[in-house]
Write a structure and sequence with these properties.
The structure holds two protein chains of two kinds. Chain A is built from no helices and eleven strands. By secondary structure, chain A is mainly β. Chain B is mainly β. Classes of the chains: A mainly beta, B mainly beta. At the A-B interface, strand 5 and strand 10 of A face strand 4, strand 5, strand 9 and strand 10 of B.
């Protein structure tokens, strides 16, 4: 158990819908990262937050947004969903900036 | 753009043999490297990491080698076991940039 909690584990929705993925980092970790993993791609970095502030942005679509709350949990919001958004979404946390990441077990998103 | 890549997408080894998984990186500014193991249905799990001021680091049954001259990273697993079957990812990072992951190598252990 990495200590990183992600909910829900599975999410099935329709095109055009909006979903929210939730992540609780390891106790004491200030950094939260979101990654997307699809079959034909590796782990693609989406966005990072550090102590509530956005720190780095990767290949995140404009339809996607995220935030980190004062209690350090984070949410990833995906809107106007398309079939191609179907993927595994991982949250990771770290205690130091860009050090060893601890990953949650992911949310499997299926857009039908 | 610069990226981390893997030489082989799949690797099959006999149980008990040693496994070597290779990774090439292209960002000469990278100073931190890390290996992850991902089993089916699970999130990536940390195996071992190494900084650019080292060329070798050992863990339990695993060794990471870093060759900065040719920008090459490898993960050696001694006495490979069926439980080692998984996808292995290398990743690189530096200073203020988030870790960049390679596409992964699937290791299959033949009993």
């Amino acid at each position: 158990d990495s200590g990183v909690t992600q909910t829900p584990k599975h999410l099935i929705t329709a095109t055009g819908q909006r979903v929210t993925l939730r992540c609780s980092p390891r106790s004491g970790d200030l950094s939260v990262y979101w990654y997307q993993q699809s079959l034909d791609q590796g782990l693609q970095f989406l966005i990072q937050y550090y102590n509530g502030e956005e720190r780095a942005k990767g290949n995140i679509l404009e339809r996607f947004s995220a935030q980190q709350f004062p209690d350090l949990h984070s949410e990833l919001n995906l809107s106007s969903l398309e079939l191609g958004d179907s993927a595994l979404y991982f949250c990771a946390s770290s205690s130091l900036y860009n050090e060893k990441l601890f990953f949650g077990s992911g949310t499997q998103l299926s857009v039908l | 753009g610069e990226s981390v890549g893997l030489h082989l997408p799949t690797l099959s080894v006999q149980e008990g043999d040693n496994s070597i998984i290779n990774c090439a990186y292209s960002n000469s500014a990278s100073d931190y490297f890390i290996w992850y193991k991902q089993e089916s249905g699970k999130g990536p799990q940390f195996i071992i990491d190494i900084r650019s001021n080292m060329d070798k680091r050992q863990g339990q049954r695993v060794t990471v080698l870093l060759n900065k001259t040719v920008k090459h990273l490898s993960l050696q697993i001694a006495a490979t076991q069926p439980g080692d079957s998984a996808v292995y990812f290398c990743a690189e990072g530096s200073g203020n940039t988030p870790l960049v992951f390679g596409k992964g190598t699937r290791l299959s252990v033949i009993a």
